[in-house]
Amino acid sequence: MVVESLIHYKVNLKRLYKPFFIYIQFMHSDQIISLSRLSSYFVIVPIIFGLISKINTNKDFIQIFYLLVFTLLIEIISTLLANRDINNIFVINSFTFFEFLFVVLFYKRFFDAFKKTHFHFILIALFLCLVIFTTFLANNIKLIDNFSVSIEAIILIVYALLAFFIIMKKMVYEDVLSTPFFWINSAVLIYFSGNLFLFIFSTYLQNHNESSVYLKLYIIHSILNILYYLILSIAFWKARKV
Amino acid sequence: MESTQGLNITNLIISGSLGMLTLVSFIIAFIAQYQKKILAHKSELQRTETEFQKQLLDASVEVAEEERRKIAGNIHDDVGLTINVVKLNLSKIKKNLKDTELVNELIETDIKILEDIHTTLRGISHELMPPSLSLLGLKKGLREMSRQISASGKIKVDLVSDEFELRLDKKKELQLYRLIKELINNIIKHAGANQIILHFALDQEKLITIIEHDGIGINDQEVMTLINSQKGIGLKSIQSRVQLTNSKLNYAYSAAEVAKITIKTPVL
Predict the structure, then answer these.
(1) Looking at beta carbons, which residues of chain B come within 8 Å of A186?
(2) I need a surface site. Which of A14, A63, A77, A82 has the fewest CB within 10 A?
């Protein structure tokens, strides 16, 4: 998703001479952007699975379904804006907050079964303040707010690990592999942990004129994006069986 | 060409991402595997428990069948045969009504036989439901049983108890009575004891029964081995009575101590 905004950067890919990056070095910026777009629109797959499984009627997973529908809308809007050469960074930065909101609400429902607390709402409010602060006050409005994304990733990783800890400690599920929650939690954990380093260092790369490296590294994000949506599709498929 | 710093950052990001992915993959795989193992362990425990319950049920059915066979045998051998004698005597009386001496003699014989039948039937009835137990409660029922066993002269059974009056639920009382009786029978049959002492005490809404004897005892582990083997039907039947009364049973025996069986039964 963030890669859409990079269309605004005039990037010039050069060859890298380290064999470890041999695959990356052969990809041109256009290919990378296409891959990124493909991965972003891959969101349609879990939405279809969600509709088949009637996930929109399941209160436990509806937050994730809404998140995916919202993601698709944001993708369409940001592509339209980018095509018309309008800065779409604001849309992307506001998406960070809504993504956080939907995922925390999903975890809230899980944790409420064990202990009800207002902590989740406090966290959402604090995160909203952070996004507003970094987007409008501390950051340049034309830059992607990677600081908030990094904080979001860390918080959601902690949520996912805590959920796994509770699943193990309280023996919540008899057959964990057939449980949609396990797959959604795994998807969140894999996506945010895999992208964490990219999110943390992307501001540095943007600020130090390393946009070409940043763009290439976005392949990692695209692959993880596809993996994320595939695992969510499995989760929704399992929900159908439940 | 990209700067060295750019390459270093690229390295760091790729290694960091791969490291994180490997770590979370291990976590997810561990959780899936751990849950699978726990599930397998749980179903194994459930299977063992079901198997054990089945064994207990089989044992209690077998013991009940054995009791029925014993009662049927007693009625057939003692009552059935003697009733036939009475019947024969009555036929003789009918044929020899004029022979007063013979009639008197046969009537005397029949009265004696009928008294014997009455005694036998009372014995069977007492065996099924001891009157002292239903009328006076467990403690007095067991005192009566101790007296009867001691009177046989084979073994001495004493009952020592704190001063308390207690009536349990009738079904529970009967099950506990049979449980203690079965334990005493086992001691008589297998332990080679000369003396048994029954202790009764009430402790925090629990009836504590301790059976001590001077014979060769058995401990919990040995009992479990016997229960798990195809032998030990009596022990399984004891175990099913323990469950029926919600009691806890403990066998203790060592070279240094006398053999002891403790039963803790909730009063409520």
Answers:
(1) 24, 28
(2) A14
